[in-house]
Structures are given as structure tokens and as C-alpha cells.
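[[Sequence with C-alpha cells]]
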Amino acid sequence: MPQTVPTQPSNVISLHHTQPARQSGQRLMLASSGQPHTIRRLETLEQRIKRYQGNVLHPEWLNEYIDLGLELAQDASQRHLQPLQESWLKRIYNTLRDTAFNLDCQECWRQQCLEFLYQPFFALQHFYREHPAGRQKIRLLFKDLNMISRYVV
């Protein structure tokens, strides 16, 4: 069972994006009936990444988190569930981006999350190229990345 997460700390820079509904049981069934362990592991890593305040870098957490998210997105794609595929990709992207802005995290951790952001960025860019309304979403994605580079880098 996933742990409950407290509301966003006051010293986290808030960015405009929509959060998926937090209905874990329903999400497990819809996301991938054969992969509840993968989803639980992704959720565990996600919480660890968001809350980490140490000085030791953990690229293995980020690599595993991204790999699991990409695996879930690929599974959704194979089942022709494009909205779910997009949701997994955006979830990875938003988690890394938001952690890079989280002032409770150490600077080195925030920077490492930012450095790993390119992977879900390119996956989303590729996803949007395959869809009719994707051009506008690609522009928004680049706009978001431009804002990140202006304020974080």
C-alpha cells in the first residue's frame, strides 16, 4: 500500500500542471493488471526521490524510476492506451522537474534530477510527434524546459 503524502511544502516552487487523481486502487487496475509490483516500486521510488534531503547522489534511483516509468508507458502503448502512456511519461517528467524546484532538497540532488530530466523530455517529445495535436504540446514542453533552464540552471 502506498504511503500517504503530505501536501506540498510551502518552500516548493509551484508550477502549473495538472496532477492525476490519486486513486491508487483504481490506478493499479487501469494501469496494468499484470504489473502491480512495478507500479508499487515506481511509487516507492517516486516518494524517495521527492523527499530525499541527503548529500549523497543516487543515480541508481533515478535510472530505475525512469526505466520503470518508461516500461509502464511502453506497456500502455502496446495496449493502444495512448492517454495512459502520456500519463506515465508526464508523471516521470513532472516528478523530476518538481524535485529540481524543491527547495527542501539539497542543491546537488536538485541538480541531478534536472540532469536526468532529458530522458522523459525526449520520450514525451517523441510521443507528441506521433499525435495530431502534438505540435502544440511539444511547444509547451519546450516552453517549460526553457523556463526551467532560466530559473534553475
